Amino acid sequence: MLSSSSSTKVCFNSNCKEPLEKWRRGWRLRTGEYADLCDRCASAYEDGKFCETFHLKASGWSCCNSCGKHIHCGCIVSFHMFILLDAGGIECLTCAKKSYILTPNPAWPPPSQFLPSQHRNLKDLSMKSWRIAGSGPLPWRKAPSFFNDSGFQFELQPGMPVEVDVVHGIDRFGISERFSISSLEKKQENFFERLIDGKPIVGPSETLEDGISASNREEQHNPSVASVVKNESSTSNVSLASAFSSKHETNGLNHDCASLSQWPTLSTPMVKHVPRYNGMNSAGEAVAHTGKARGDCRGRNQLLPWHWPQITNEELLQLSSNSNSVLTPLFEKILTASDAGRIGRLVLPKKCAEAYFPLISQPEGLPLEVLDLKGKEWVFQFRFWPNNNSRMYVLEGITPCIQSMQLQAGDVVTFSRLEPEGKLVMGGRKASTTPSNQGVEATLTGNDALAPEDDKGKYKLGEINSINGLTKGNSVPARSFPVNQIAKADSGTTWSEICKSRFKVNETLEAKAICHGKRKNSILGSKGKRLRVENEDMIELKITWNQAQGLMRPSPKIVPTVIVVEDFEIEEFEQHAPIIGRPTIPAIDHFGEKIQWVQCDDCLKWRKVPANALLPSRWTCSENVWGLDRSLCLAAEKLSTEELEDMIPTISKDSCKKKKNEKQESDSVVAMEGLNALANLAIQGEEDLPASSLSGLRHPRHKLGCTCIVCIQPPSGKGPRHAQTCDCVVCKSLKRRCKTLRDRREKKQLEKEAETTYTEQVPDNDSCVDDASERNFLVSPLKGQIDLNIQPERDEEVSPGLYFGAIKCSLPDATEGNFRQQGYSSLGVGINVVDKQIQEDGTGQSNFSNRVTLDSHLEKTDVDHHLILPMDTVGSSSSTATRGTLSRQCNH
DNA sequence: CCAGCGCATGGTA
DNA sequence: GTACCATGCGCTG
């Protein structure tokens, strides 16, 4: 017991307030400090009679369901003396020891239920010495070391009850004492000793021969957390305050963590390594860990799953090398490109920053000392910017540290706190070396039994599916609970959410297909969507279901098996899977027969083939078995360019009308264009986009230094623009081509004026030959690139005339299934027309196909079901495939 | 011209 | 509709 002298202190007990000359340590405060009590109060506390003495008239007394003992529930002093029972009521710990199985406890009621409405210690809540560079102790907004002592950690899901175990529940809100410092704790000594000895207290109903509960057995594969409980003193030598995921944990022993600690570990599945905020709000109510430690104290939110710390055993080994130190993982973050960039600013998740970093009121913030895993000390500037009535917290000057850890975008930085030093520790983890799940970033603590990992710690598609399938619609409390608890959970974060947020789905295409759509899935963040177009080894295409089936071209001879899944008819091709065929232009010849025009890959001439012809992705004149006179590239082209261009608007009329009525269809057009771009790309045998063309720094889709209009334009569309009089290479090139185009359009307009009937059918405001449609394509002035990343409205402003109506087309009605038959590819046509145009003015390159770029247009249009196709599958067929024929329009 | 700061913007959940 | 946050740009030194 601590004893010291002072002339100003008074007893911490508000009912006492006796001046203290000497004081004794009482219960632990939320700040990590201890209540200083006078002898009398301390004695009462140590005897376990504090509440009986001082809180007898307070509300919140309950009787133990077993022995009837009165316990002051909700009081910080006796907070750990009872547990909540599933059936309601409480049980004192003594009884609980006898009857309670050591598995996660029932849901923990809202903290406010357990705490007095007012708490006198508000002023203490944020007092914690924290190492701030160049300054003395600063107020800390949470009790940083609260969970060091117990070694248990929990997490709260927004608005959900917290599942805790006996021990954890005690310390759930961080208002517990250290177990060893009071008689109350002494009373539990045996209890905890048993825990320490790795002998879970097993209730009679679930006792197994070897003393391992059934749930524990189930969790043998769980990377659940080893817990270290110790009768701890101020000179604790507990080396681990928390333990971490380990898939090697079996039979109650976490071998990994056991090596890190002198204490035997316990296979309790309920420990979670999630930082908690254990503050109280201004009303004195306990605030669940929210990361929202002040201000609004909404308390509903919590650190997002992707910020849950996933510290590795290696890190633990490093950090815990000092056996006197206790490591408390706080949070982690996947480095974005910005974080890892030269700017040297790490954007901190707001909740994390507010929960775990010092309170700062000025944007200038504070210098913060941070240790890395090697023990090297860094000083970062922790600050914020006002942002949308909020704040954006950043850690500045992290570049050297990031570099020293050899981290880059996609890697993970972890923040922990080293106690008792109170130092912030910044660790790093390569994205490819995530300890538990390399491909799955999440440490599915405690839940791995749901989807067993393979030897390499990776989840297989089916397993992920099973996860989703198993828990879809269910809710799981959080990560570290065993399977049997998941089934019981009725609120909280759904597993699918966890899955979505925690699986680094960009690692595998399969994972993408399943868990796509979560922002954090991308290591590159929201802006990474552009980069998602290209991964290292694949191209991701997002297309709608309709569009996908439109691209699929099954053999007309093959009759598919039709199955119905959720009202959708799915054509299943067992042997001859549909292929992504060659885009063609459907048309009607002079005899009124349906035909399609297809372009030869070699000579680029257009050939007429039957409407039902199924063409491979690569097609040349030599394969023209329908027109032997045109089976050689030397043969003249029947279709003139003018005829072709005239045909295009005719084709597009129907789809335009459709587009007018269906917004989705409108969106699909753009998506389809992008899709066709890539499809065409694949068709032309360019399976590998040059990485540099897509991963430029200035603009992800262009090479570094690219001077195309997109790259030289501010991303927001604002900023300096090229003047009308600008004579730079870009502008000159564009102007020249625009002039050429205008001339051609004028010429065509004159021609069409004679065809009044046609023009009447295509009113201007309903035409697909509008500017927007035309501007969906951009030929990069220098590279011959086709850029789909055009914002027509904005681009129009940038440089009038920069974008020209390269083609006049739209899409056939995919919903009618004729796209597949018609094989019409707007982009394919567009490309060729554009290409010809380029060749005409001599500024372009004919080989544009490998520079097709996709971007947000494609992304924005994924309003329907999506298929994500790896590039290497485009243009090829698989042994088995399904092609959905929508019996109705998907409306999702 | 460059680097960095601070803010604005837009995408995503 | 709102909050968060990734990122780009203008401004300044």
Low-confidence stretches: 1-7, 100-132, 134-303, 319-323, 433-551, 648-722, 758-892
Radius of gyration: 34 Å
How much beta, percentage-wise? 5-15%
Straight-line N-to-C gap: 64 Å
The counted number of beta strands is: 27
Structure class: alpha+beta
How helix-rich are the residues, as a percent range? 25-40%
Helices, by number, come to 30
Shape: elongated
| Largest β-sheet summary | 7 strands, mixed
Largest beta sheet: strand ordering: 11-16-17-13-14-15-12
Overall pLDDT:
49
Describe this structure in words.
This protein is α+β, with helices and mostly antiparallel strands and 892 residues long. It is built from 30 helices and 27 strands. The longest helix is centred in the C-terminal third of the chain and has 25 residues, at 729-753. The protein has a 7-stranded mixed beta sheet. 27% of the residues lie in helices and 14% in strands. The relative contact order is 0.08. The structure holds a DNA duplex (13 and 13 nucleotides).
Task: Please give the structural blueprint.
Blueprint lengths: L23 E5 L5 E4 L1 H8 L3 H5 L6 E3 L6 E3 L9 E3 L5 E3 H7 L7 E2 L13 H4 L20 H5 L11 E2 L2 H6 L11 H5 L1 H8 L17 H5 L7 E2 L27 H4 L7 E2 L45 H7 L6 E9 L2 H4 L4 E4 L1 H7 L9 E7 L4 E11 L2 E7 L2 H6 L7 E8 L3 E7 L31 H11 L11 H6 L6 H8 L6 H7 L12 H5 L8 E4 H7 E2 L7 E5 L2 E6 L5 E2 L4 E4 L5 E6 L6 E5 L30 H21 L1 H21 L7 H4 L34 H25 L2 H6 L9 H4 L17 H7 L19 H5 L3 H16 L14 H5 L5 E4 L11 E5 L7
Parallel strand pairs: 13-17
Antiparallel strand pairs: 1-2, 3-4, 5-6, 7-8, 9-10, 11-16, 12-15, 13-14, 14-15, 16-17, 18-26, 19-22, 20-21, 21-27, 23-24, 24-25
Helix pairs in contact: 21-22, 22-29
This protein binds a DNA duplex (13 and 13 nucleotides) through helix 12, strand 14 and strand 15.
